[in-house]
# Entry
Amino acid sequence: MSVRPPTIRGVALKWHLLAAVVGGCTAWALGATPAWSMVIAAAAPAIVGAAPHFVRGAILGVRTPHPREDATAAMSGTEFEDYVARIARSSGVPVIMTSITGDWGVDIIVGRRPNRLAIQCKRQARPVGAGAVQEVVAGAPMQDCARTMVVTNHEFTPAARKLAELHGCELIGGADLGRLQSTIRRLTAPSTPTEV
# Structure
């Protein structure tokens, strides 16, 4: 006869039974009534089973920034581009990150032709000027993109806003980062033909 190795389920059951017995006996030894000892014995396996999930959730919760915290504050420029690309990918559209040099002012290309979106990312400590808008507007045709966007962790100068409005360039600044995903979805959505 061969002896079967214990299964994970069997081992877990033994640990849960052990937790129940130890919990009930400890409660009784510390002076709990038999009824409360049984309640503690019944709850002990659930507590032991939930503890790893609770600890994991607590650790992840500590690392997750609060909605009012600036998640981009400690990022470098490259990390900010990766952050924007992750948000774009979560929109369900293809994302291409261009090379660091020779990108014609386009850091990320999002979507499918003919609705591709050229994104210029600017992680700065001061407001972004018109130069960023000029770069992405000029580089978009070189990357075969129909629409443009500049994304920053800060704000935009009045000149940048005016130039963006003139060229139809979408601007997403610090406080507006929360709407980046919905804006990308809207700009990359296939255009529906209109009947005349």
In short: The radius of gyration is 28 Å. Strands lie at 95-97, 108-110, 117-122, 147-152, 170-172. Residues 145 and 196 are 27 Å apart (CA to CA). The chain is about 50% helix and 10% strand.
